[in-house]
Amino acid sequence: MCGIAGAVDLARGVDRAEVEPMVETMSCRGPDDAGLWLSDGDRGPAAMGHRRLAVVDVPGGRQPMTIEHGGETLLTLVFSGEVYNFRELRQELEGRGHTFRTASDTEVVLVGWLEWGSAVVERLNGMFAFAIWDTRREELFLVRDRMGVKPLYYYPTPDGALFGSEPKAILAHPRSEAVLDLDGMRELLAHVKTPEHGIYRGLYEVRPGSWVRVRREGVDVHRYWQLEALEHTDDRATTVAHVRELLDDIVDRQLIADVPLCALLSGGLDSSAITALAAQKLRAQDAGPVRSFSVDFVGYEDSFAADPMRDTPDGPYVRELAEHVAADHSAITLSNDDLTDPDARAAVLAARDVPVSIGDMDTSLYLLFKAIRGRSTVALSGESADEVFGGYRWFHDADAVDADTFPWMAATRMGPLDHSTSHFAPDLRDQLHLADYVDASYRDALAEVPHIDGVSAQERRMREVCYLHLTRFVQILLDRKDRMSMASGLEVRVPFCDHRLVQYVFNTPWALKTFDGREKSLLRAATRDLLPASIADRVKSPYPSTQDPGYEKALRTSIADLVSDREAPVRDLVDVEALRSAVDAPQDGPSIDTDRAKLESVLQLDAWLRRYRPTLAL
């Protein structure tokens, strides 16, 4: 998977001592190796740094990787991610006369750039973020995969730019500043993932499906891929068959690894389908059983109570699927002590770089991945199936769909605008104008949606709803999955983000996506033969969250300590009396994640202010 970082300065040059700390911040993403290349000894116009997590061609895939001719370096590449069709591309390039020194996908990207230039990105199937320095033209290209599975940030400077897989890499350079202004605070709270917004002032995120070029003339951005409106002519049977055909090919490609691989299993339709497909293909390869992992909480199943988002616990379904496919399964069971462990919560913050944690769901995911890393280096995930196939409950809630805003904000008990701002000081709430920010973001997103003429009003609206999820909501979850996994050096692959599948299903009419009156009809029909009926018919259940009142009690104790501490940096931003009321409110029955969200966010914000010491321009 890896982490990348570097700098370009076409006026004064780049100092090695300034870039080495940037690369070191990426050590969690790449624990296996490190490399740093400068275009001219210890000081030149460009520096490219890499931390490696070795997955494909373990002995041969070291980076930065260069192409040289006549003793001169032509191109230098640092790459993070995977290209799943690199073997076909390699064969094509060999047919054009190119030779290869390694068996890695990284070299295929580098040689492909030499042959096709930036057009090579349109040929890549995978999840990736990479930087390529063209010595001949003195140009830096920053490239991100179509769905934004892998992150990439940049920070323009007067004569170049800084870049990195995560903000922390850029913030390690002395020419960057960690400034949070009102727009940054709005983006933290809005739950809309505005394209290119990097939270910190002056920091940008490369938009999915785009490349950024840095040269003497300045910085320019080009989108090489985006969702298109295409007429869908396949009938139901053909559509279901094509979805299955795509899934078979996608999972087959994503099983390629030279290190131990596993599947993340929750017992829901999405993860079960991926696990079952992987099990089937591994058996056909005589590669042994699929290894799978799940997360659980002490006493969760025995004391589970249905909440607004979850009807059933995962445990029974996880065990049934694991038995059904004969998986080598492990359940990682966490206690309240695990979830409130200061080191674990600090690791989550360090991975996130900004205070956007969703509490125990982030901590448990981090701890799950940390435990998996002891046995596997690569994991397949069912993430993004809900966005692709229409799985969330609010897709099927008329009030949420018809609301003139992002549907996940209009859905019952899913109002981030309410629980994200009520704990802030009144004057800050007034400055934020968060509702206006969200509305502007919503209008911008709607303006991008590609439409087909001659469809019903419902079909037009559902195309908009799907687009909003595929370009805004999914980015929140992919970012979380990447940060929590790479904090432990675990590569998580996301089969449902294959751009061929996303594009095909996006253009499938809503009536076909819900042909049986259920959510994710196409996915259920395409994989039913692989699954027990109970799992194929299971209602969507989100990632689990502890319901133990003891966990919320611990949060309330921490908040009480914080509001009593007059030196706490967060005090100037919050409504202390509102927090005291929240701490003193009756606590009856199981603890629900949406009810304690503001407690979690205040604690994380305070920890972030203490650790990062940003400049607040509010």
Automatic annotation (TrEMBL):
GO terms for molecular function: asparagine synthase (glutamine-hydrolyzing) activity. It comes from the Bacteria. It catalyses: L-aspartate + L-glutamine + ATP + H2O = L-asparagine + L-glutamate + AMP + diphosphate + H(+). The keyword Repeat does not apply. The keyword ATP-binding applies. Gene3D superfamilies: Glutamine Phosphoribosylpyrophosphate, subunit 1, domain 1 (3.60.20.10), HUPs (3.40.50.620). It is an enzyme of class 6 (ligase). Keywords: Amino-acid biosynthesis, Asparagine biosynthesis, ATP-binding, Glutamine amidotransferase, Ligase, Nucleotide-binding. It holds the Pfam family Asn_synthase. Pathway: Amino-acid biosynthesis; L-asparagine biosynthesis; L-asparagine from L-aspartate (L-Gln route): step 1/1. Its EC number is 6.3.5.4. Residues 2-217 form the Glutamine amidotransferase type-2 domain. Belongs to the asparagine synthetase family. This is asparagine synthase (glutamine-hydrolyzing).
